[in-house]
Amino acid sequence: MNSDSTVMHDALHYYQQPGPYSLHQTVGSNNCSVHTEYPDDYSVKEVTLYAAGYDIHSDHHVLLQWLNSTKDDAPVAQIVQLTGNYNYYAPIVTCTDTTIRNQVIPVGAFSRIQRDQILHLANQVKFQNSSTTNNCRVWLRELLMAMVDEELITQAKFDEIIEVDPLQMRRPEQ
Predict the structure, then answer these.
(1) Cβ(83)–Cβ(89) under 8 Å?
(2) CB 106 within 8 A of CB 164
(3) Other C-beta atoms within 10 Å of 92: how many?
(4) Fewest 10 Å CB contacts: which of 63, 130, 146, 164?
């Protein structure tokens, strides 16, 4: 097995394991995922940061996303997010067009193995479910920093994203 095959096997093996964040996880009842109908594939895909609304200085929701397919001319996107009730579910695939009335910031083009690595890193980001201090913006900043550490994105790309949407740094819990 060559190194690419080994990496792919390791990534697939990790995500096929049962557990709180495996790809086979059943998401909460308030999450309506169409992942079974529109799963990720092995093509290289553009990953973007979605920021709700256009006022980046307000407290707004942020997430990472990539296109899995289209349905009735609408995009079907896989999203990586910390939800409003501070839970992380994966995978979530939605048929909502998130580009309308929202800011979309390019992060880069990623292979399936790299996207699986992003999902793995997202599982590792620490958060407190009951926090009223640190939110999805802090969580996503830490995910992007982990992506820099793993050389999925450069420090320059991180700085470029933070300049467009100044994601908050973690603060002590109150």
Answers:
(1) yes
(2) no
(3) 21
(4) 130
The whole model's pTM is what? Answer: 0.75
* Section 68-91 average pLDDT: 75
The domains of the chain are located at 3-164
125 backbone dihedrals φ, ψ, rounded to 5°:
-70, 125
Q: What is the pLDDT of residues 129-152, one digit of tens each?
A: 778 888 889 999 999 999 999 999
- Tokens at residue 148, please? 């820099």
Residue pair 41/23 in contact (Cβ under 8 Å)? The answer is: no
The whole-number pLDDT of residue 24 equals 25
Contact present, 43 and 112 (Cβ < 8 Å):
yes
- Per the listing, tokens 């086979």 go with 24
